[in-house]
Amino acid sequence: MRSASIAVALLFIPAITSAQTLSDAERQALLASLEKTDAQLVQVVESLTPEAWAFKPAEDRWSVAEVAEHILLAEQLFKQVIKGPLIESRPPDDMSTAGSRSDEIRNLMLDRSQKLQAPDPLRPTGRWPTRAEFLAAWQPERAATLEWVETTDADLHGHAYELPPLGVMNGQEWMTFMASHCERHMMQIEEVMAHPDFPRTTGR
User: Fold this and answer.
1) Predicted structure pTM score
2) 87, 135, 171, 177 - which has most CB atoms within 10 Å?
3) Burial of 24 (0-12, 13-18, 19+ CB in 10 A)
4) Rounded Cα–Cα distance for residues 92 and 69 (Å)
């Protein structure tokens, strides 16, 4: 009788373990967002002249080049956190594994009326001054992100790490933040390009 009970219990272990990974719906939503913004960013960067790439709407506003640099720096940092200290963290005893804050996080990131200050490590400093240099760094970085999201079986729901000012987020919520962060800054690029003084000649 005891062995039968153990056997029945073991049947549930794979289900419990797999429930901590990304669900099919979560994975597909992340991939759709990442693929969309990748195509948008590459198309914009390839279309710009050097003058348009460097154009600043005001002294205290970022150029497309600076926004693009920030997007890439953030993606590198977010993945380092997710694959490192987040996955290595001890799962909090009281943490929900439902990823219930994803909609809240995405809505916050897509609200451009709410201004957020980039921390110093993510502020642009001209690391990739030309469009070609940026694309040479960006395209393999985003390709690696897509491959990881598509194939990972990491316990993204079962571990968490703090991101001020949003607080403690599990791995799935961090991934939602990363994807939404790029969407947010694509909107910022559109705002730069809508400026009346923005150079209109394409770079092709």
Assistant:
1) 0.85
2) 171
3) exposed
4) 34
